[in-house]
């Protein structure tokens, strides 16, 4: 069974549409935007026809940065930096679904990610780490050599589903001002022709 870590953002939504994994998983780990991510992911999975499940593990005391509503950690690469977030998400998904036959966890990392835990050295190391453990779950990031715009085009993600996606880092509803919302707007405006957007 392949499971996609699914936030409802552009990258994971495009992967869900393109690869049709057996399971999409949204994790509420105490991030401020958790309810928005869960709502968007559930709606998208319903429209695409994919199974969606959630994991809840309140790690709010361990967070920092905008996603936790706290000051940035020293050395943070961006305002939304939450220390060791990707390995935490992968570990929680593996813990939950390995006993159910999980074989691979898909991440929505893309080439334009600024965080170290979205880049090839980390992803390869995490894949090796899980493969050595019970269950031998693998980790992959199918779009890590693509930008978000390239991923949207390659996947054929339809514009009519864009309104269901959610990229905000700080609120249950899109704030329009955080880095996630700004990236979302710029990618949509430069990926989809105005004629196509007007027709949706």
Features:
38% helix; alpha/beta; 7 helices; Rossmann fold; 10% strand; five-stranded parallel β-sheet
Topology:
Layout: E1 2-5, H1 10-19, E2 23-28, H2 34-48, E3 52-56, H3 85-97, E4 104-106, H4 120-131, E5 138-140, H5 148-155, H6 179-191, H7 194-199
Parallel strand pairs: 1-2, 1-4, 2-3, 4-5
Helix pairs in contact: 1-5, 5-6
Notes on the protein architecture:
The chain has helices at about 10-20, 35-50, 85-95, 120-130, 150-155, 180-190, 195-200, and strands at about 1-5, 25-30, 50-55, 105, 140. Helix 1 runs parallel beside helix 5 and helix 5 (about 150-155) packs across helix 6. The protein has one domain (about 1-200): HUPs (Rossmann fold), CATH 3.40.50. It has a 5-stranded parallel β-sheet, with helices on both faces. Helix 4 (about 120-130) links the parallel strand 4 and strand 5 (about 140). The longest helix has 15 residues, at about 35-50. The chain is about 40% helix and about 10% strand. The mean pLDDT is about 95. It has about 200 residues and is of the alpha/beta class. The protein is built from 7 helices and 5 strands, in the order βαβαβαβαβααα.
């Amino acid at each position: 069974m392949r499971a996609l870590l699914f936030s409802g953002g552009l990258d994971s939504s495009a992967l869900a549409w393109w690869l049709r994994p057996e399971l999409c998983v949204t994790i509420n780990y105490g991030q401020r935007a958790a309810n928005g991510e869960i709502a968007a992911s559930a709606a998208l999975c319903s429209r695409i026809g994919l199974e969606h499940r959630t994991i809840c593990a309140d790690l709010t005391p361990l967070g920092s940065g905008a996603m936790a509503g706290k000051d940035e950690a020293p050395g943070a690469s961006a305002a939304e930096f939450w220390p060791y977030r990707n390995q935490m998400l992968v570990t929680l998904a593996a813990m939950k679904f390995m006993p159910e036959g999980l074989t691979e966890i898909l991440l929505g990392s893309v080439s334009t990610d600024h965080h170290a835990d979205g880049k090839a050295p980390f992803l390869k190391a995490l894949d090796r780490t899980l493969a050595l453990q019970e269950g031998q779950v693998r980790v992959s990031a199918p779009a890590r050599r693509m930008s978000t715009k390239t991923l949207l085009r390659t996947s054929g993600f339809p514009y009519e589903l864009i309104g269901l996606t959610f990229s905000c880092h700080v609120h249950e509803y899109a704030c329009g001002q955080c880095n996630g919302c700004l990236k979302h707007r710029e990618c949509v405006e430069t990926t989809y022709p105005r004629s196509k957007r007007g027709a949706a």
